[in-house]
Amino acid sequence: MKNCIEINDVSWYREGKAVLKDIRWQVEEGQHWAILGLNGSGKTTLLNLLNGYIWPTTGSIRVLGHKYGEVDLREMRKSIGWVSSSFQERIHGNEKAQNLVVSGKFASIGLYEKPMDEDYDRAGAFMEQLRCGHLKDRTYQTCSQGEKQKLLIARALMASPKLLILDEATNGLDFISKEGLLDSIYELAGLPDAPNMLYVTHHTEEILPIFSHSLLIRRGEVFMQGLTQEVLNSKDLTDFFEMPVNLDWNRERAWLSRK
Ligand SMILES: Nc1ncnc2c1ncn2[C@@H]1O[C@H](COP(=O)(O)OP(=O)(O)OP(=O)(O)O)[C@@H](O)[C@H]1O
């Protein structure tokens, strides 16, 4: 089995302290992982390393078979989709939803190259898949938070990424919108040529059964990693959060409450 991600003994220091320390993590091709960590634990730093926006102080990184340092990162990033709610602020509000999605093919914000009819057809198909096809002629700024997230995922899919990072994708969504988005993410995993997905979240109950593995990060270090069903349990999460918690599995999702 080939590895999609190999992070070997990676540390990243800033201001004399380790923001990430001795990270060892491997994601096999075809696996989908959840990444769980408290605020400031180092998740965004890890994603920045994966995308080559920052460089490890020590250790090595290999993504999709390419060792960082020996590969053109701009080319690499075309294979990595990163959907983050913070990215929403960088979108021109008066962009038409359909054009925003199509622009994902060129991995740029705004349309600079002339798309072809088939690009619009593909964009339309992804929008249908994510149940936001009806928005195609709407401007981005008139879409709700949940609709914007779906458009950004459709946009990321246009580049046919091999790795898709969903970074706090449900931020600001109400219950119905959140569950709708989770349904769409679940369905994405079932598509032929589905990308490997990483799902970064603060909420255990959002970790769908497709995320077979989980990585728990605490204070810049890997606290635990492995099969989600094994990693997510009351005892280990009590240690992880340093607060007594109960974890109940219901409909293959892990619901956390305070003891
Ligand atoms: N360039 C930097 N210089 C100094 N400290 C940094 C730098 N970047 C991140 N940090 C610190 O490293 C820690 C981890 O930050 P990071 O953004 O990776 O956390 P996170 O897990 O993504 O948090 P959140 O869930 O709140 O987004 C934080 O304490 C942050 O202040």
Summarize the biggest pleated sheet.
Answer: 6 strands, mixed
Bound heterogens, unique: adenosine-5'-triphosphate
Q: Name the poorly predicted regions.
A: none
Distance between the termini: 41 Å
Name the shape in a single word.
globular
Rg measurement, Å: 18 Å
**Arrangement of strands in the largest sheet:** 6-7-8-3-9-10
Strand content: 25-35%
How helix-rich are the residues, as a percent range? 25-40%
**H-E string:** EEEHEEHEHHHEHEEEHHEE
Question: How would you describe the oligomerization state of the chains in this entry?
Answer: single chain
Would you give an account of this structure?
With 259 residues, the protein is of the alpha/beta class. It has a domain at 89-159. Helix content is 28%, strand content 30%. It is built from eight helices and twelve strands. It has helices spanning 43-50, 73-77, 97-103, 117-129, 145-157, 175-189, 228-231, 234-241; strands spanning 3-14, 17-28, 33-37, 58-63, 66-67, 80-84, 163-167, 196-201, 213-218, 221-227, 245-250, 253-258. The strands form three sheets. A six-stranded mixed beta sheet has the order 6-7-8-3-9-10. A hairpin with a 2-residue loop joins strand 11 and strand 12. It is globular and about 50 Å long. The mean pLDDT is 92. The chain binds adenosine-5'-triphosphate. Adenosine-5'-triphosphate binds at residues 14-15, 19, 37, 39-45.
